[in-house]
Design brief:
The chain is built from six helices and eight strands; from the N terminus they run αββαββαβββαααβ. An eight-stranded antiparallel beta sheet has the order 3-4-6-5-7-2-1-8.
Length: about 210
């Protein structure tokens, strides 16, 4: 069961669709299209606050658990990458996944910005732990998932958690799961939130994500 779920998780992290000429764009998001400028080293421990359509939850990140992943997440939150993104894959009893930017040109800038793997160290994919999705070795980019239950079977498959929800896990539990795995990642890449708003209007989403002291 966990193996099949992990295979699906890897497959859902693949990003290979071309951009549509009618894709949503926003000129004000120019800074989000410059991954090279988002390369700060994260603090040893930091918190990220996610204000969502279902409420607020707080993630505490430990850099020593997965330093490469912690640095990437820190920069993505800091530049506002996750603002407006949909929780596009919600599998009850497994996990909730998000991290495709709603503006296709922004996502395209990050699509090939892969980071090196972190080994699974002292953390595990237990309930409430936060982990990057991937599509094979050294392929993590922007998508993350939060474990709904103990999925420690993912540890041996190269999924190192970098943080844990320390407040608001009940909010995560309430994220709308009616569409399960129906949203097409290819179409999200191509059309962004235009596609999701049209086909899956009841998806929950991140209003604002911020790094907090």
């Amino acid at each position: 069961m966990i193996f099949r779920a992990a295979v699906s998780l890897i497959a859902m992290a693949l990003t290979m669709a071309p951009l549509s000429a009618h894709a949503e764009d926003d000129p004000s998001k120019g800074k989000l299209r410059n991954p090279a400028a988002a390369s700060e080293r994260a603090p040893g421990i930091y918190k990220a606050k996610f204000d969502t359509s279902k409420g607020v939850f707080m993630v505490e990140v430990h850099r020593d658990w997965a330093p490469v992943g912690a640095d990437r997440f820190y920069n993505l939150v800091k530049i506002g990458f996750y603002d407006g993104v949909r929780f596009f894959r919600v599998v009850p009893g497994f996990m909730v996944q998000f991290g495709i930017n709603g503006t296709p040109t922004v996502q395209a800038a990050w699509r090939d910005q892969r980071i090196k793997d972190d080994p699974v160290r002292s953390s595990s994919n237990k309930r409430g732990y936060v982990t990057f999705a991937h599509a094979g070795p050294d392929s993590r980019t922007t998508q993350v998932f939060i474990n709904f239950q103990d999925n420690s079977g993912l540890d041996s498959q190269g999924f190192p958690p970098f943080g844990v929800v320390i407040d608001g896990l009940e909010v995560v539990d309430k994220i709308n799961s009616q569409y399960r795995e129906q949203p097409s990642q290819t179409k999200i890449q191509d059309e962004g939130n235009i596609y999701l708003n049209r086909e899956f209007p009841k998806l929950d989403f991140v209003k604002k994500a911020t790094v907090v002291p």
